[in-house]
Design brief:
Elements (H helix, E strand, L loop, with lengths): L2 H22 L12 E4 L2 E8 L4 H4 L23 E4 L16 E10 L5 E7 L5 E6 L2 E7 L5 E4 L7 E10 L24 E7 L2 E9 L6 E9 L6 E6 L4 E6 L5 E7 L13 E6 L4 E6 L4 E4 L2 E4 L2 E2 L2 E2 L2 E2 L2 E2 L4 E2 L3 H14 L3 E4 L6 H10 L2 E5 L13 H16 L5 E8 L8 H15 L4 E6 L3 E3 L2 E4 L10 E4 L16 E4 L6 E5 L21 H15 L5 E4 L7 E2 L12 E2 L12 H12 L1
Parallel strand pairs: 21-34, 22-25, 25-26, 26-27, 27-28, 28-31, 30-32, 31-33, 33-34
Antiparallel strand pairs: 1-10, 2-3, 2-4, 4-9, 5-8, 5-10, 6-7, 6-9, 11-12, 12-15, 13-14, 13-16, 16-17, 18-19, 19-20, 23-24, 29-30, 35-36
Helix pairs in contact: 3-4, 5-6, 7-8
The structure holds alpha-D-glucopyranuronic acid.
């Protein structure tokens, strides 16, 4: 099929998805917000904590005024507590530590919008449900705690004082993503940056600028304008390469990009980024973009046509020292530096899209990124709303990170069960959609339902047929005792020709624990964890199609289901580092292995 038709079909799919999502639930967020004309609404927000949910009945967003002497209100944003935004609410007030419920946030700001300008209210993320009001009027809602969303407020903004109220609800949802059960703290709140973004009437809404699939020198992409005057001349400039590619946007505001050049390709040793400038007749935007080619060849992963072993580590979006959701550039630099120190060239951002700083900093630091959707363990795939929610979250994740050369893998699910109704059908469908909107990256599903008998793994799952790499979580030595020598472990794989990635392995240890014999699991000793790592590496050395690994997990992290008062105290202790950053014995085993790899 001629390339032009592929491009037309691809753009058509993208356009339909784009229009559908924008109409149904608020607009897909514009990308690269930090390069836009924005006013930050970060800071202290007034809040009303609403454990009973009565705020809805009281219509707190109306902020009714006293009119007659008999009037009184049993709520007010004034005189009450404030919470920092961005930030989860659980770590900010002791009484909210375990809180799962509704908190109303209010922020006032002064604004005067010039004629011919447009205005957008942009959220980096709100966990989990957000109902957003401007000046007492509902402007929209969003579901999902880990992806950006926005609302156009051009016709709703007042010149002068404006009031935003957000009803944040982090109650678990049966048909939610994730569902009821998950092994991390359910941090609620307005957890990422909030910005007011001003644009010209017609502006550069979105763009995709990356190497064509399998190419080392050809850019294939597009620019999407939004506004009245959408048929314009567009120029893509790469000053360092003296490139100024000219194109035109069509009646839908879409312009196609295709040109070749010799790029210094991005890789972990040389995380080369180029200054890119996109100019239209009514707007311009600057970005830093790197170019690399990631693909699978047989059971190998190739980066820029050379085989690469993924030296990964799992991490949650949590600042371990402060015991709160990570949200800032500094948090990202801290977490990613620890991964670099361990010897990693890749990070698995578990189990949901982390904030944009994580991806941007990883790109600068030469760390490849695994992005994942919170389709985690028990998902109700037979609920009629779930497929659309999955697709929307996929769009939002790919939308935000598609120009990031660090992102090499889209992981669409973790430990879902093949026997749950509709799981295969819905996840296969989602995989096809993901491949339709971005076929330049690897796609996978993480499975832990493999059989393990007679020291032999039998890895069978339908989803592997649709995945580029076989991703397996296995906890031999912790949840599952070894059934023989680690170096004798055998593997029966449903797709023996595909690369195998061990996406989770490990065990727990409390830093400095010497509560009992080191060869017994019950005392959380570092030696016991260290031994698990030694044996796992023995096994890895026998696997010929192993393309990479990522230990569970870099830092001990908060998870309320981990209740042993001495060894856990609300922490999953599988970290190679304690929450204070103390190196456990297993850390040195991993570091040594990565040095040799
Ligand atoms: C699972 C899961 C993780 C969890 C880990 C554990 O495999 O994917 O989210 O934290 O096991 O049990 O520690």
């Amino acid at each position: 099929m001629h390339l032009k038709n592929i491009l037309n079909e691809w753009i058509l799919i993208f356009l339909i998805t784009f229009l559908l999502t924008n109409v149904l639930c608020g607009q897909t967020a514009m990308i690269n917000t930090s390069s836009r004309d924005l006013v930050s609404l970060n800071g202290e927000w007034n809040v009303i904590i609403d454990p009973t949910g009565i705020g809805e009945w009281r219509q707190v967003w109306l902020e009714k005024q006293l009119e007659k002497k008999t009037d009184f209100f049993e709520y007010s944003f004034e005189g009450g507590p404030t919470l920092k935004v961005p930030g989860d609410f659980n770590s900010q007030m002791c009484e909210l530590t375990y809180f799962e419920g509704i908190v109303w946030y209010k922020k006032q700001f002064n604004y005067s919008l010039q004629k011919g300008k447009r205005l957008f209210l942009h959220f980096g993320a709100v966990n989990y449900l957000a109902d957003v009001y401007l000046n007492g009027e509902k402007i929209g809602s969003h579901e999902g705690g880990f992806t950006p969303f926005q609302f156009e407020i051009t016709d709703k903004i007042k010149n002068g004082i404006n009031s935003i109220i957000v009803k944040v609800n982090n109650n678990r949802q049966e048909n939610g993503l994730p569902g009821y059960g998950y092994d991390w703290l359910n941090y609620g709140g307005i957890t990422r940056d909030v910005n007011i973004i001003e644009t010209n009437n017609t502006f550069i809404q979105d763009y995709s600028i990356q190497l064509k699939k399998g190419s080392l020198d050809t850019i294939l992409g597009w620019v999407q304008l939004s506004g009245a005057k959408i048929e314009q001349n567009i120029t893509i400039k790469i000053p360092e390469l003296d490139i100024a590619f000219e194109t035109k946007s069509d009646e839908n505001g879409l312009s196609k990009i295709e040109f070749s050049s010799s790029f210094e390709l991005w890789n972990p040793e040389n995380p080369r980024l180029y200054h890119i400038r996109i100019e239209s007749e009514t707007d311009s935007i600057d970005d830093k973009i790197g170019f690399r080619c990631i693909e699978v060849l047989g059971n190998k992963i190739l980066l820029n046509k050379k085989q690469i072993f993924l030296k990964g580590v799992n991490m949650h979006e949590e600042n371990p020292n402060l015991g709160r959701r990570a949200f800032s550039q500094e948090d990202a630099q801290f977490l990613l530096s620890a991964a670099k120190e361990l010897g990693c060239n890749m990070v698995r951002l578990a189990h949901y899209p982390h904030n944009g700083y994580m991806v941007r900093e990883a790109e600068k630091m030469g760390l490849m990124v695994w992005d994942e959707l919170p389709i985690y363990q028990h998902i109700d795939f037979s609920d009629s709303l779930v497929p659309a929610k999955m697709e929307r979250m996929l769009d939002e994740m790919v939308q935000r990170d598609k120009n990031s050369c660090a992102v090499i893998i889209w992981s669409l699910s973790n430990e879902t069960y093949s026997n749950s109704p509709n799981r295969d059908k819905e996840l296969i469908e989602l995989t096809k959609k993901c491949r339709a909107i971005d076929s330049t990256r690897l796609i996978t599903h993480v499975i832990n339902t493999q059989e393990y008998k007679d020291n032999t793994f039998d890895v069978q799952d339908t989803l592997y047929k649709y995945s580029d790499i076989i991703s397996i979580n296995e906890y031999l030595g912790w949840y599952v005792p070894w059934q023989g020598n680690a170096s004798d472990t055998k593997w029966k794989l449903v797709c023996p020709d595909k690369p195998v990635f061990i996406s989770e392995f490990g065990g727990e240890a409390l830093f400095g624990s010497n509560y009992g014999p080191i060869d017994e699991a019950a005392y959380w000793t570092e030696e016991y964890q260290e031994n698990i790592y030694k044996k796992q590496i023995e096994m890895f050395n026998t696997m010929e199609n192993l393309c990479g690994i990522s230990p569970w997990i870099l830092f001990d992290y908060r998870s309320l289901g981990r209740m042993h008062p001495v060894y856990q105290n609300g922490y999953n202790r599988k970290g190679l580092l304690s929450e204070k950053g103390e190196k456990k014995k297993a850390w040195y085993i991993m570091n040594e292995y990565y040095k040799r790899k």
